[in-house]
Write a structure and sequence with these properties.
alpha+beta
Length: 189
């Protein structure tokens, strides 16, 4: 399989501000210790399951299962960079559509930056690239790349818009000690 990084299938970035000092935020720690129940609260009903594992060569990895539009997506995010203020995760994601299965490449970037008043701005950026498998799949189903990109942009953008403030709130709860590894936190307000 070949990833076509010169083509963008979809891209969105949303931000949310939290009342936590930047030096208290640790996105990598949050991401790699996130209890599944907390992940589910970060975009109901789309988020279905999550887990943390490693690749065969020991790199950290997060598995997310979610609905994006009408597709069930299984994301195999491998950490390319993971720091308290920036994580870049790369996945060859399995996409189960109403007409069959395909694969796309998804880059998920989670970023924190200090802002005025001792607060932090969280940015959730998601960029999807087609694979050759994906291009063959859409061609076999009579869809152009432009049509597929439009549908993916609408569905992915909507999903990201809804999950970003909930991820930010969860990161804030973790920074304030209200979520510890393995805890089952109270329902988010």
């Amino acid at each position: 399989m070949k990833v076509l990084t010169d083509k963008i299938l979809s891209q969105s970035a949303y931000t949310a501000e939290i009342d936590v000092a930047f030096d208290k935020v640790d996105i990598a720690d949050w991401l790699f210790t996130l209890p599944e129940a907390e992940y589910l609260r970060c975009c109901p009903p789309d988020h279905i399951g999550s887990g943390v594992t490693t690749t065969d060569d020991g790199r950290r990895m997060v598995i997310n299962v979610e609905m994006i539009g009408t597709a069930l997506v299984v994301q195999h995010y491998v950490a390319e960079e993971a720091t308290p203020s920036y994580c870049r995760m790369n996945s060859i994601s399995d996409v189960f559509t109403p007409v069959g299965r395909t694969q796309v490449n998804v880059i998920w970037e989670l970023m924190a930056e200090a802002i005025e008043g001792g607060r932090t701005r969280y940015t959730n950026r998601v960029t999807s690239h087609p694979t050759d498998v994906f291009l063959d799949f859409i061609a076999a189903h009579g869809q152009t790349f432009e049509q597929a990109a439009l549908a993916r942009q609408e569905a992915g953008g909507d999903h990201n818009r809804r999950e970003t403030p909930l991820f930010a709130a969860s990161i804030a709860r973790r920074a304030l000690g209200k979520i510890a590894s393995g805890d089952v936190p109270a329902q988010a307000a």
